[in-house]
Design goal:
The complex is a heterodimer of chains A (about 140) and B (about 130). Chain A has one domain: 2-Layer Sandwich (Heat Shock Protein 90), CATH 3.30.565. Chain A is about 35% helix and about 30% strand. Chain A starts with 6 loop residues before the first strand and ends with a strand. Chain A is globular, with a radius of gyration of 14 Å. The longest helix of chain A has 22 residues. Chain B has about 130 residues and is α/β, with parallel strands linked by helices. Chain B has one domain: STAS domain (Transcription Regulator spoIIAA), CATH 3.30.750.24. Chain B contains 5 helices and 5 strands; from the N terminus they run ββαβαβαβαα. Chain B has a 5-stranded mixed beta sheet with strand order 1-2-3-4-5, sandwiched between helices. In chain B, α3 links the parallel β4 and β5. In chain B, α1 runs parallel beside α2. The model of chain B has no long low-confidence stretch (mean pLDDT about 85). The chains are: A alpha+beta (about 140), B alpha/beta (about 130). At the A-B interface, α1, α2 and α4 of A face α2 and α3 of B.
Amino acid sequence: MMARDAWKAVAITSQSDIVMARRQARETAAQLGFGNADQTRLATAVSELTRNVIQYAGSGECRIRDASDANFRRITIVVEDHGPGIANLELAMQDGYSTCGGLGAGLPGTRRLVDRFSIESDPGLTVVTISMLARKS
Amino acid sequence: MKVAIPRLGRILLVSIQQDLSDDAALEFQSNLLKTIAKSEALGVAMDISALDVVDSFMARMINDTACMARLLGAEVIVCGTQPCVAYTLVEMGRGLFGADCTFNLEEGLKTLKQRIASRGDRSLTEDSDHDGA
């Protein structure tokens, strides 16, 4: 079980790290009590984001954290890279837009899978933060 | 990681394993098409029941592979999409694969045989039926 507020980091430097990151996301979500559907959503979102890292930046990092509190179970994942950044963020977040033939560039699609989504992108730093929440019964 | 492509008469059975890397996925696609061409396969059953995550890359790969196989004249069925995968694909906005889907491999083979028979290709009936169904 992860210590609260501790980040679990996965370096993203190769294709096999995409698999590692999404497995870690699924495992952590399962540990926190998220069901299979949410686990799949998170694993898929992480797969999309880390794939973007490899494709556009070459390398980066995926960090996963248990951000639960008394009322909500919550998992927060940050995918960060130091690549060239997204030139037109507004365009990239539009449905139907994609570069490079749409290979893994589905940011709007990824956003639909999670409860919280934020993105900052400048040349040299792109950070995508996603969260999944569920009220504790 | 190579994906084996066993044959059932003129139908190819492909089972996509967990966590195929991008390069392996493209290699698999290329191998499958070569095998379809070489064996003059009439049908392909793509079993994806082992995949618990299908992201947009993998969805496109399955989609494109199915379309390419159909261009080679093979009937294609995708079998065994996991419920959570179906959920996620639609939520993401990916939509359907470029081929009809069946719940499992058994149904997929039945459907393929029906389709091939209705195309009037007599060659399929020359091979003996191996599955004992």
